Amino acid sequence: MSDLSVMIAAFLTAAVEWVEAFTIVLAVALAIGWQRAIAASLAALAVLAALTLFGASAISAIGNLRIAQFIIGIFLLLFGLRWLAKAIARGAGLKPLHDEAAAFAKLSASAALAERRGAMLVAFQGVLFEGLEVWLIVVALGVQTGHTAAAAAAAIAALLVVMAIGTALRAPLARVPENTIKFGVGCAILSFGTFWTLAALGYQWPLGDYSLPALLGFYAVGGLLLISAFKRPAAMAAR
Amino acid sequence: MRGLIKTLIGDARNLGCIAIITALAAALIASPARPFAGALIPLALLAAAAYLARR
Question: Helices A65-91 and A211-238, interaxial angle, to 10°?
Fold first, then answer.
């Protein structure tokens, strides 16, 4: 598996999460100032960096390659299934789309930002919790393919891009097509998870590594068909 | 801690779906239906995504 496929998956996952984290940091910064908001965010990023080092070493320390592959595969299945289901529900109109502007307005009006330490905690927790999904993807994809540094670099690149655009705009990044990215990343992560979990259980994929694009195509087409199927009853009920 | 657990495994329905599908995968691979695992498990996962999307 190439550096590039791992980097694309890590970059897109990270971009979605950093956009959500930026909304929180922006609301906190406007309440208590950029310096404190950035300090809290950097503290959360330091925790995530430490977790990445710990997670990568813990998985690498598992002597049995198949057990490590199985554990990573299960975590990717849990993550990918959740993202794909959420993207299908939002795409079909069963759930409202995530609205960064609304999230920003709600947080800005929250009493949690009234007090300096409370606001810093909001920024710290926001970056940490949004970053945990980035951490999971960087560690799982990176360790399994031997490209942890490339995956981490892609996540950091996504952070820099989101920060640069967000700082220039000084507004929530509401125009990012979050659900489309979530759908694509959900399909990709579910494909990696399916491939590695079955391989760890002893299944020989008939096309080897080429089964991965086939799985990706299957989940993408299947997901789009589900969105279209779920849209119809909702549209009929609205008539 | 709850945030970490929710990030890693999602909710109980998500976890339940993956537990059932993993058990199904193990059973299929240990049975004579082994060659079909590569087609049946992705189908089961897509069905699980459909179920979770409607919840």
Answer: 30
Distance CA A146, CA A142 (A): 6
Give this complex's ipTM.
0.94
Confidence (pTM): 0.86
Cβ-Cβ contacts under 8 Å, A77 against chain B: 18, 21-22, 45
pLDDT, tens digit, for every residue of A104-145?
A: 888 888 877 778 888 999 999 999 988 988 998 898 888 878
Task: At A192, list the tokens.
Answer: 């990696």
DSSP structural state of residue A209: G
All residues at 6 or more sequence positions from A73 whose CB lies less than 8 Å from its CB, including other chains:
A192, A193, A194, A195, A196, A197, A198, A199, A200
Q: Which of A35, A2, A6, A1 is nearest to A157 (CA)?
A: A6
Nearest Cβ partner of A201 from B10, B26, B53?
A: B26
DSSP percent split of chain A into helix, strand, coil, nearest 5 = 85, 0, 15
DSSP A50-110: HHHHHHHHHHHT-S-HHHHHHHHHHHHHHHHHHHHHHHHHHHTTSSPPP-HHHHHHHHHT-
What amino acid is encoded at A185 in this protein? Answer: V
In this structure, which amino acid lies at residue A225? L
Which residues of A fall within a CB distance of 8 Å from B50? 85, 88, 226, 230
CA distance A120 to B37: 49
